Structure formats: structure tokens, C-alpha cells
Amino acid sequence: MEAQKKILLVDDDIDVLAVVETILENEGFEVITALNKDEGLRKAEEEKPDLAILDVMMTTQYEGFELADILMNNKQLNNMPVLLQTSIEIFESNDDDVMKYARFCRDKMDTGEMDVLLVQDFKSGKAGVDYRDTTGKIHWLPVDGFIRKPVNTKALLESVKRVLN
Questions:
Q1: Residue 18: count of CB within 10 angstroms of its CB
Q2: Nearest Cα to 12, choosing from 80, 61, 69, 82?
Q3: Listing from the earlier edge strand, what are the strands of the sheet with 127-132?
Q4: I need a labelling partner for 61 at 20 to 30 A (CA). Which of 11, 143, 148, 153 fits?
Q5: Residues 6+ apart with CB under 8 A from 54
Q6: Is residue 147 within 8 Å of residue 163, measured between CB atoms?
């Protein structure tokens, strides 16, 4: 029998945590919840989940990105996949070089003063975040995909199963 997959769910909205936790548990996943970056990091290191689902904006607008970066660069977590939950618009790419597409959008399209661009190539599944920090510096953060808020059960489960297989 295959071991139950563990999913770390980090969100500062208790209602979102409860809904997503219920959906995932009903599908047989073990769900570990946290309300912020520090608690999420501690639980990730203790529990060694198979996947992290992180809210983008928690205590700060960058907290989800910061936690994703820490988790993905933590060698003890064995390249754990990360999905970001967000209500921010996601730019769809037809190029699996999503960073190149994000930079094209930032340079050539009217993105105004957008501090955050989320880009995903829905064909390959490659995704990433191109964001400007408080100092104005642009950062690239590759992730394993996005889950739109409000959460759609079918889309959530498709994303989770895609990255866990």
C-alpha cells in the first residue's frame, strides 16, 4: 500500500485553510496547516511534506514568495514541489521559458507598475513569479504552478495530482 502523501498548507485565512484542508483530506491526503511563513517553515522541517501549497499574500505581500524560495532551496526537503494559491491574475504563456515570457511582459506590455507577474505555460506546466521587491529589484522565482482563489475543487485536485505524480 502506498504511503499517504503529506501536504503543507500555509495561509493566513482560516476559512481558506479549512476548505482546502477538507478537500484534500477527502481525497486521502494528510494535511499539515500553518498560518504564516515562520510556522510553515517550522512544520515543513519537522514533517517533511511531499508538497507545499502557499498563499501568496499573508503578513506581507511577499511572504508566500519568501517561504517558497526558502523551501525550494532547503536541501533537507528534497526539492519539494510548491504551488502558490492566489487571486492575482496569471499570465498564460505559450512558451515553456516562462521567465523569458515574464520579462517580455514586463518590458513590452503595459503592465503598469505591477510589482508581481505570475506566469504559467499551461502546456508544459512550467510556472514562475517575476516580482519587484520594496527596493525595486526584480526577482524570478520558479514554482510548480498556481491555484486560483477562490478555490475550485477540480482545479485544485488536478494541480496537486499533477505535481505529486
A1: 12
A2: 61
A3: 90-93, 116-121, 127-132, 138-143
A4: 153
A5: 10, 11, 40, 64, 67, 68, 82, 83, 84, 85
A6: no
- Amino acid in the structure at residue 161: K
Question: Which residues have CB under 8 Å from 134's CB, separation 6+?
Answer: none
* pLDDT tens per residue across all 165 residues of the chain: 467 999 999 999 999 999 999 999 999 999 999 999 999 999 999 999 999 999 998 988 889 999 999 999 999 997 899 999 999 889 898 888 999 999 888 887 765 566 888 999 988 889 999 988 888 888 999 999 999 999 999 999 999 999 998
SS3 46: helix
* β-pair partners for 121: 93
Strand (E) or helix (H) holding 90: strand 90-93
What is the per-residue pLDDT for 108?
A: 78
